[in-house]
């Protein structure tokens, strides 16, 4: 059993010395390596610290540059937002002008149509398609054309206001995002290594899928600015167009209103002149009727005055028939009495013929009197319609420039 236990290995002094030297060398090597590692670590730590500081400064500089870029575009957006806001107010004012102008056409149109309806109440020969009628129809067509144009212009203004507000909304949304971005980046820029709110965050180096490049970011705001400026310019051009339309439609309506009034005044003057002449003729007819009635009375008296001479002549002739015998002579007296009877008969016939003529003339004069009186009544009715009803209404027409 004792033979199985091996005695410990025995080394020589040289081996012991070599072993010690080897361990010394290995320890020194390890120590030197560790020393170098310590120095390298210090150098690396210092270098990383300097690099980290430099990178942080670069990041802060990038933050400042980014904030400058955001502030620049924010200022551009604010300027354009201010411009489009002012333009919306301006176009809204023009829209109100168009609405008022459109509303103001209702009364002139109603009056023009009412005048046409009133003039349908003219009677007989005065129911004529005269210049007044033509100008009134033209006025209705003019006002209805103005209304159509103003309605179309109003629709354009409403649509442009909608586009302006859409552009304004895009600008406001972009600006809101810019404000948020400024707040976030300013907060990040002000963070320091000793800030209490900093901490480790996982997955922060992953690029967000919905992120955009700086070019896309810039192009987005630039596109909003260009769109807003385009809509603002369109709005300015529309306002210029609206101003011209309002002026032109006002001028057209005023001119046509003036033409209608001139036609009315001319027609009223013509009707008054015709009525005056009819009244003059009526007065003459009435005077002539009176004279004819007096003439008829004289003729009747003249006919009646022939009765006694006729009776006398016939009585003489009849009495002379009683002369006796040879005294029943056809002497000059007999012939003269016979001639007298014939003469009186002829006179009576002539007077009766003249009386019939006078009576026929009187009937004609009376018919003419009735015709003239009826025509004068027609003219009076026309004057009442044109001068009192129509021109009375037209005095209230006030075509304003809005």
TrEMBL record:
Pfam families: Tektin (PF03148). InterPro entries: Tektin-like, Tektins. Its main location: cytoplasm. Keywords: Cell projection, Cilium, Coiled coil, Cytoplasm, Cytoskeleton, Flagellum. One of its GO terms (biological process) is cilium movement involved in cell motility. GO terms for cellular component: axoneme; microtubule cytoskeleton. Residues 24-94, 268-309, 341-368 form a coiled coil. It is found in: Cytoplasm, Cytoskeleton, Cilium axoneme; Cytoplasm, Cytoskeleton, Flagellum axoneme. Microtubule inner protein (MIP) part of the dynein-decorated doublet microtubules (DMTs) in cilia and flagellar axoneme. Forms filamentous polymers in the walls of ciliary and flagellar microtubules. Belongs to the tektin family. This is Tektin. It comes from Sinanodonta woodiana (Chinese pond mussel). The lineage of its organism: Eukaryota, Metazoa, Spiralia, Lophotrochozoa, Mollusca.
């Amino acid at each position: 059993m004792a033979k199985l236990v091996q005695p410990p290995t025995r080394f020589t002094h040289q081996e012991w010395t070599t072993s010690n030297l080897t361990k010394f060398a290995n320890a020194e090597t390890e120590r030197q390596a560790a020393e170098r590692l310590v120095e390298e670590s210090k150098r690396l730590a210092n270098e990383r610290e300097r690099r980290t500081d430099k990178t942080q400064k670069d990041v802060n500089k990038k933050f400042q540059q980014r904030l400058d870029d955001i502030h620049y575009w924010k200022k551009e957006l604010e300027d354009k937002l201010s411009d489009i806001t002012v333009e919306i107010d301006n176009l809204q004012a023009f829209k109100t002008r168009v609405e008022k102008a459109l509303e103001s056409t209702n009364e002139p149109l109603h009056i023009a149509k009412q005048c046409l309806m009133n003039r349908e109440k003219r009677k007989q020969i005065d129911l004529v398609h005269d210049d007044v009628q033509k100008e009134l129809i033209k006025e209705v067509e003019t006002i209805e054309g103005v209304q159509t144009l103003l309605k179309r212009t109003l629709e354009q203004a409403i649509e442009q206001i909608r586009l302006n507000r859409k552009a304004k909304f895009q600008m406001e949304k972009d600006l809101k995002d810019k404000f948020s971005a400024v707040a976030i980046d300013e907060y990040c820029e002000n963070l320091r290594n000793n800030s209490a709110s900093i901490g480790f965050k996982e997955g922060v180096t992953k690029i967000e899928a919905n992120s955009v490049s700086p070019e896309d970011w810039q192009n987005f705001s630039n596109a909003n600015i260009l769109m807003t400026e385009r809509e603002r310019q369109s709005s300015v051009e529309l306002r210029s167009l609206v101003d011209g339309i309002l002026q032109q439609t006002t001028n057209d309506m005023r001119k046509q209103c003036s033409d209608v009034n001139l036609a009315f005044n001319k027609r009223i003057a013509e009707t008054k002149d015709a009525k005056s002449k009819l009244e003059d003729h009526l007065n003459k007819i009435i005077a002539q009727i009176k004279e004819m009635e007096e003439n008829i009375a004289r003729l009747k008296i003249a006919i009646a005055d022939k009765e006694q001479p006729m009776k006398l002549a016939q009585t003489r002739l009849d009495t002379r028939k009683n002369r006796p015998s040879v005294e029943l002579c056809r002497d000059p007296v007999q012939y003269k009495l016979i001639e007298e009877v014939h003469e009186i008969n002829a006179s009576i016939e002539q007077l009766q013929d003249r009386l019939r003529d006078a009576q026929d003339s009187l009937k004609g004069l009376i018919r003419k009197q009735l015709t003239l009186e009826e025509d004068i009544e027609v003219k009076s009715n026309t004057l009442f319609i044109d001068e009192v009803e129509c021109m009375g209404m037209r005095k209230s027409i006030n075509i304003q420039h809005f």
